[in-house]
Amino acid sequence: MSTSLFAASVLIIGGSHLATPNYLISSLHDALQAKGATVHTLGVCGTTPSDWLKETAGTCGGAERVGKTTPTVLGAKAVTQPIGQLISKDKPALVVVVIGDNIAGYGNPGFPKAWAWQQVSSLTKAIAATNTPCVWIGPTWGNEGGHYNRTFPRVQMVSKFLETGVAPCRYIDSLKLSKQGEWPTTDGQHLTATGYRHWGEALAKEISAVPASGKAVQ
């Protein structure tokens, strides 16, 4: 990403990985600000991509952070905002989407590909309609089992699906940023504070390579 683009603003939206103060709402937010960006992060736990087309209440809380302020825990008041309205208000130079685990169908026999495609394409089309460059961040390895019944094969399947399905957003494959089990979790899916710090710093480096045109990097 060019220096001029980072001098503008970045909007980050997504689910539970942004919804707690010591998660990416701290590490990724801080790392991007350290590169000169003004960042607005809104995380609403349990949300899927289409939930960001309209106001949708979270199922397990949320958090919001603007600039250098500390994260505000929203709790039961957590609700998404339509992406078009958020972009119109913030006028970001870049939108970052952190959604992957919530479309994986962990614990189910098969991956819900058709439903997931509808979910992802609905949000990418809405962002594309604003001509705003975007980045979509895929899931980390996490740990197998746990509360969410994750398996490494399903995580890989979801990551490959997103890699080919989020254009015109650029995809960042988080699986390439660590080894299996390198970043420990608290429940199989959500990382420890140390894990989120490593993930956030690694993502910031990847995001900084996004071209100013916003076109997907193949």
From TrEMBL:
InterPro entries: SGNH_hydro_sf. It comes from Pigmentiphaga aceris. Keywords: Hydrolase. It comes from the Bacteria. GO terms for molecular function: hydrolase activity, acting on ester bonds. This is SGNH/GDSL hydrolase family protein.
